[in-house]
């Protein structure tokens, strides 16, 4: 599904609430219904929409209950400014969550003879200590990655502000250099990205003759050039 379709699916508040709960652990319909205070039929409809989008998948757990889980790593970025509107989505199918494997197992009763939580044999103790050390290292690694993610988000915000400021400054120079309003409008379009003559005609809604004259004038002034079939600012 494309980025616009994902936004449409995620635009519903109850679907976002469902995903919030599923990000904690897999759930079944009546469980989601009870926690969200939404009718089971409505919950099922939302889950079907999320499943059709490929965001959610289901599996059968113990007692033959149907559980739902998030099945995609999705990153959606929206770039919105006076000069830009762009949506980018990145999807990656992760391996099955470990929680799903735990839920699929039938709960086992605790052994009545078990009196200690920690392993007793030397081999079990070594395995226990090794796993505990590995877990501690992964907890620190997860915290480092979360911090890096927050820093990256702040860096993107800073870059967006710098980009808008640079475009603002460029627009002032375009107004100074342009011989007429049409030329200024053409240069403003080319500032966003290079365009073909056909794309400029569609965007500006002018005659081909008017566009050709304006492009020829801007080229003679050394303000634009044509490369690979597209016009761009010099």
CATH structural architecture of the largest domain: Orthogonal Bundle
β-strand number: 7
Q: Which stretches are low in confidence, meaning pLDDT under 50 for 5 or more residues running? A: 108-115
Mean pLDDT: 87
Q: What spatial form do the alpha-carbon principal axes imply?
A: elongated
| Percentage of residues in DSSP E strands | 15-25%
Structural class: alpha+beta
CATH superfamily of the largest domain: Winged helix-like DNA-binding domain superfamily/Winged helix DNA-binding domain
Rg value = 28 Å
Number of discrete domains: 2
Distance from first to last alpha carbon: 37 Å
Which CATH C-level class of the largest domain is it?
Mainly Alpha
CATH topology of the largest domain: Arc Repressor Mutant, subunit A
Could you describe the largest sheet, including whether it forms a barrel?
A: 3 strands, antiparallel
Instruction: Summarize the amount of helix as a percent range.
Output: 55-70%
Give the strand line-up of the largest sheet: 1-3-2
**Order of SSEs, N→C?**
HHEHHEEEEHHHHHEE
Walkthrough of the structure:
- Residues 106-128 are annotated as: Disordered.
- InterPro entries: ArsR-like_HTH, HTH_ArsR_DNA-bd_dom, HTH_Cmi2_C, HTH_MetalResp_TranReg, WH-like_DNA-bd_sf, WH_DNA-bd_sf.
- The protein is an alpha+beta fold and 234 residues long.
- It has helices at 3-10, 13-22, 29-36, 40-52, 98-104, 122-177, 181-192, 197-204, 208-220, and strands spanning 27-28, 56-60, 66-70, 73-80, 85-92, 224-227, 230-233.
- It has 2 domains: 1-106, Arc Repressor Mutant, subunit A (Orthogonal Bundle); 158-233, Orthogonal Bundle (Arc Repressor Mutant, subunit A), CATH 1.10.10.10.
- The protein has 9 helices and 7 strands, in the order ααβααββββαααααββ.
- The strands form 3 sheets. The protein has a 3-stranded antiparallel sheet. Strands 4-5 form a two-stranded antiparallel ribbon.
- A hairpin with a 4-residue loop joins strand 4 (73-80) and strand 5.
- Helix 6 runs antiparallel to helix 7.
- Mean pLDDT is 87; it is low at 108-115.
